[in-house]
Design a protein that fits this description.
4-stranded mixed β-sheet, mainly alpha, 18 helices
Length: 580
């Protein structure tokens, strides 16, 4: 515990130094350190008191239930936590409340927001673990564990208190930042996807066993008996986690983060976590499934039956189904504009990158394991069956090439647009691909030259050393073409760039309203603008404006920077701005 406190104090000091430098020396380092210490101790006291109350409550629940997990020594420890931690917590809370009453800016400080988020997400972790344990007792019939129920009650209360604290409004806006909602949503999404995979996997395992008699596969989804009863039991055991993470996902994403407005953090969550994560899982699983099928036809099975050979198919199919579901849903969450937006460009380039990596790996395997394996000396008796190598090559090229071609064709379809050529996403993608592949080529050449020079100096340049050349040569052959092609695309794009005056500029809108939500999302989609939302605190009841009228007014303003103020009755004013 002490090490954790010291660690977070060091982190707070580093963050404070960064903020101080960015603020031009205007930030009060003393105040920041004081807040870090106060809120750090508050977090520790909340944890100590919470564990103490949960331990005492577990003793009570254990006396009621069939068994108790606490002895006299443990009970004394929990009571000590409650007495000392609870009294200290009450005193520190009273101190902080008085400070908030004297200085309203305290509640809007980043330190308080960070504390609320850490305490809320920490309590959420306790809720998830204890909820799964409690639901397992109810649904799956596992042993009664008293401290699971106790911790569920305690951490649910702690979470509810900090959720309400995060919903409070301050001068700087809502205490809870959007990024903290997205962290909870990420935990729910990952947990829901994994637990749902186990449920689907058990059902597919049962279906496979029923259709492929003679062998019962066992790949870790459950007991070594893929009967209907075992499938039901396995799915039932995974249901508590699926229900728990489903509730977390619904509350943090669907109920709150989804309608909190578009931002860089939200786009990163949807694109990197959802779209790219789901697509990557589906591509890997689809590749594994295709590779398994090709092996059956191209490689010698040595007497292995079809049932044994395809016993991993349910695993690949499960991951593919869940990955495609995650990808498809998050793809639908990307805003659709009349004009091609940076979000769409980012999606296309990320998907293109996934396919390009897989296709390049296929070319490398073909050159190294098929072509060079037959041409170069083989003193080490490397025996790689041609069927296995070709199965991998066809898999990588078919899956990766399809994904890359589909998305790269869409990218190149807009290559004649000035906004596309000047897009930072396109430049980062091309520079990353060109630079990384060029480094691979350079590194491979360095390795080969070093081996030759070393062998000449040692007078021991034998076939053993030359045999290893197939690896760097395969890397050079697979990436050299990628380097040349993307370098040419990058050079042509730079040459085709119009003068700065001719480049299309995006419209930035500072939106001042009492609340955001679905109507701000529709405004971004219809008007094709970037919105920065600022919440008004002087309005009680709020009626959202007509999105169609507001979009028309924004487009008619003819300025690349606008200020839009929305009144409580839904009327609005659009003010063109310029740099002063």
């Amino acid at each position: 515990m002490e090490d954790a406190v010291i660690f977070w104090l060091v982190v707070a000091l580093i963050v404070g130094a960064v903020v101080y430098r960015r603020s031009g020396g205007q930030a009060d380092i003393g105040t920041m350190v004081r807040r870090s210490i106060e809120y750090g101790f508050l977090l520790v006291l909340v944890g100590i008191t919470g564990f103490g109350v949960a331990g005492v409550l577990a003793r009570v629940v254990g006396e009621i239930g069939p068994d108790s997990s606490a002895g006299t020594e443990t009970t004394a420890l929990w009571l000590t936590f409650v007495i000392v931690g609870g009294a200290s917590l009450a005193g520190l809370m009273a101190w902080i409340r008085r400070r908030f009453a004297k200085d309203p800016d305290e509640e809007g400080a980043g330190g308080w927001s960070f504390y609320v988020a850490v305490a809320e997400l920490g309590a959420l972790t306790g809720m998830i673990v204890s909820s799964i344990g409690t639901l397992s007792w109810i649904i799956s019939g596992t042993d009664f564990i008293d401290y699971m129920i106790a911790h569920l009650i305690v951490w649910s209360g702690v979470w509810a208190v900090h959720w309400r604290l995060g919903c409070r409004s301050s001068r700087g806006g809502t205490v809870r930042r959007q990024v903290y909602l997205l962290l909870g949503a990420a935990a729910g999404t990952i947990g829901l996807a994994i637990s749902a995979s186990f449920v689907v996997g058990h059902l597919l395992n049962w279906a496979y066993d029923g259709s492929m008699p003679g062998y019962i596969p066992d790949y870790g989804f459950g007991p070594d008996e893929a009967s209907w009863d075992s499938a039901v039991y396995g799915a039932r055991d995974a249901t508590p986690a699926m229900l728990t993470f489903g509730a977390v996902w619904f509350w943090y994403w669907w109920r709150n983060a989804r309608g909190s407005g578009h931002s860089v953090e939200r786009h990163a969550f949807v694109l990197v976590g959802g779209v790219l994560g789901g697509l990557g899982a589906a591509v890997v699983a689809g590749s594994g499934l295709l590779f398994t099928v090709l092996l059956w036809f191209l490689a010698d099975q040595d007497g292995t039956s079809a049932t044994e050979h395809f016993d991993t198919a349910p695993v690949f199919l499960t991951v593919c189904i869940v990955g495609l579901t995650v990808w498809r849903y998050h793809r639908s969450e990307l805003p659709e504009n009349e004009l091609r937006s940076e979000v769409e460009r980012t999606y296309d380039h990320l998907a293109s990158w996934v396919g390009l990596v897989a296709a390049t790996a296929g070319v490398a395997v073909f050159l190294g394991a098929v072509v060079l394996h037959q041409i170069m000396p083989n003193p080490h008796d490397w025996d790689l069956p041609l069927g296995e190598a070709m199965s991998g090559v066809i898999t990588f090229l078919a899956v990766g090439g399809t994904v890359w071609w589909r998305n790269w064709s869409r990218i190149e379809g807009h290559a004649d647009e000035p906004a596309e050529l000047g897009s930072p996403v396109r430049r980062v993608y091309l520079m990353t691909v060109f630079g990384s592949t060029a480094l691979i080529v350079l590194g491979s050449l360095l390795v080969m030259v070093y081996v030759v020079v070393f062998g000449l100096l040692e007078r021991d340049l034998s076939a053993d050393q030359l045999a290893w050349f197939r690896i760097p040569l395969a890397l050079v052959g697979s990436t050299a073409g990628v380097t040349v092609y993307h370098g040419r695309v990058l050079r042509e794009g730079l040459q085709s760039m119009p003068p700065p005056a001719e480049q299309a500029e995006s419209v930035h809108v500072t939106l001042v309203a009492a609340s955001g939500g679905e109507w701000t999302r529709e405004l971004i989609e219809q008007a094709g603008v970037e919105v920065r939302l600022r919440l008004r605190t002087d309005i009680g009841d709020f009626v959202p404006p007509s999105v169609e009228d507001l979009s028309g007014a924004v487009r008619a303003a003819g300025s690349d920077e606008l200020l839009v103020t929305v009144s409580g009755d839904g009327t609005f004013e659009v003010v063109p701005l310029t740099k002063g």
